[in-house]
Amino acid sequence: MRDFELTQYLNEKSKSILQLGASTGGFIETYQQKGWSVLGYDYSPISIKLMLEKNIPARLVNLNALNSESNSLIYKDLLQNDMQKYCNIFMFRVLNYLDMKAQTYLLHLIISNSLPGTVFFIGDQFDESKGYENAFPETKRNFKTSFFAPRTDMEFLLNTTVHLNIESHNRKDELIVIRKRG
Ligand SMILES: C[S@@+](CC[C@H](N)C(=O)[O-])C[C@H]1O[C@@H](n2cnc3c(N)ncnc32)[C@H](O)[C@@H]1O
Q1: For 106-121, how does the pLDDT look when each residue is reduced to its tens digit (9 = 90+)?
Q2: Every domain of the chain and the residues it spans
Q3: Quick one: which atom of ligand 1 is closest to the CA of 164?
Q4: Does ligand 1 come within 6 angstroms of the Cβ of 165?
């Protein structure tokens, strides 16, 4: 069981989850089986194929893709539209794979365009002895939190360290759960 820490924080009103970097859909499929509406984004065609084979709705999206002329995310309109339908957003072990510009634009976009009541779940794996995976700089440890913390319309529900995935016992995840008020 790997969602035991999450279930209590979900916005249950519309029973919907959008996962960015969904891989093969391991997190969202358990909710889909319970009747939730789910959608997974990933940039791996194999991940998309495997999700679709399990009848999990999925979109092939490279979260790093920027439109250089307008300095924005190529998938901006798509994500803005999806955020009107999904009131829980999972980002587990994906933001650290993005470059800083894409990560910044993505966090701004989801914070500004999400519906009131949306709950964001952000988890990134780290090794206490080595610091963040992918050499994510120590000085940036509070980077994600800093997008939400100054905003009065955001409420921190959880900021902790957990094992998001029982298969990787030696690696913990820093997990933040934030709700947009309203
Ligand atoms: C470490 S895996 C985590 C998978 C899942 N979120 C979990 O926690 O078990 C990272 C996932 O993010 C996806 N990913 C990495 N970079 C991405 C990008 N630029 N755009 C979309 N997906 C990306 C990978 O394909 C992979 O499925």
Answers
A1: 999 999 999 999 999 9
A2: 7-180
A3: 8
A4: yes
